[in-house]
Design goal:
It is a single chain. The protein has one domain: Roll (Pnp Oxidase, Chain A). With 152 residues, the chain is mainly beta. The strands form two sheets. It has a six-stranded antiparallel beta barrel. The protein contains two helices and eight strands, in the order αβββββαβββ. The C terminus is likely disordered.
Length: 152
């Protein structure tokens, strides 16, 4: 049942290589330059760069691993992880992969709870140190697993 619900979302969330949830939309992380002096002035120092978090919107999840990671971070025990967001087309096939390195949750807003097995997420914000993107065509094709050899 869960896989059916996940396929109606555009972005599949993977933590530690396992699907942990899915989201309808993503506002990618960004950067904002904070100048130390007004444009054109010669004094001042180097500009500072402020990273803005990634926002995952309108999602569902059902895993204890994701729930524990969120809870620990919101309690102040930040545990940076690699997060993969697999972008899906209308048929549920991967078209791109967004890789968030050293990411951790900084904000969580749950939707009203209505199902004992799933929790709905209105918004999840992730602080992200590095973000990379690869189209599905850029990824190497995975070899199908070979059948196990028979031992006699």
């Amino acid at each position: 049942m869960t896989d059916d619900l996940f396929k109606f979302r555009r972005f599949r969330l993977e933590l530690d290589g396992l699907v942990q949830g899915a989201f309808a939309a993503m506002d990618p992380p960004g950067e904002q330059v904070l100048a130390r002096s007004a444009p054109g002035e010669t004094q001042g120092g180097a500009a500072a760069v402020l990273r803005t978090p990634a926002k995952l919107l309108d999602g569902i999840a059902n895993t204890r691993d994701l729930s524990r990671w969120l809870s620990r971070a919101l309690e102040g025990a930040v545990e940076p992880k690699e997060v993969q967001l697999v972008e899906l087309d209308d048929d549920g096939r991967p078209v791109a992969r967004h890789r968030f390195e050293a990411a951790w949750p900084v904000k969580l807003r749950l939707a009203p709870l209505s199902d004992a097995e799933l929790f709905a997420v209105d918004e999840l914000e992730l602080s992200v140190e590095r973000w990379s993107y690869a189209a599905a065509a850029d990824e190497p094709e995975e070899e199908p697993p070979s059948p196990p050899k028979r031992v006699r």
